[in-house]
Amino acid sequence: MRFERVTAETLDTVLDIVNSNPAYNTMENDNPSRTLEEVKSEFLNEESESYFIIEGDKPIGLIDFLRNNPRDNCPWLGLLMIHGDYHASGYGREAYASFEETFIHQQFPKLRIGVFHDNVKALAFWKSFHFHQYGTSSWRGKGVDCLEKQLT
């Protein structure tokens, strides 16, 4: 498994992965699908870094993170998404474990994530990696559990 940077030329693949997750899209944006412009804005911006999760030669998911959130001066994982065709295959666990190793090597002391209150499966997933809740917030009017993991 490896990570490759998302580029303007690969946005159609990003859109395919994102739209293979209609339940998440509905939870996040009240719409089961996203447009090319929406994914361009989310995955090609100055604030975050976006990568494909590659298994063999196939992009199977996406990971997006902020090295430093200016609100709390902490790194944040904004999204870990596996293509709908590959759910429940262990790829999400493998991708996160690999990504966490990169963070540890880069000497990040901790990592934060936000999980929608309604995303029970994601909350259980992140807690299995020993993330703990330290607060709550909202994003676009939706409740978010704020989780954190000490890395060092």
Automatic annotation (TrEMBL):
Keywords: Transferase
PROSITE patterns: GNAT
Single GO molecular function: acyltransferase activity, transferring groups other than amino-acyl groups
Domain N-acetyltransferase: 1-152
Protein source organism: Paenibacillus paeoniae
InterPro entries: Acyl_CoA_acyltransferase, GNAT_dom
Protein name: GNAT family N-acetyltransferase
Segments forming a coiled coil: none
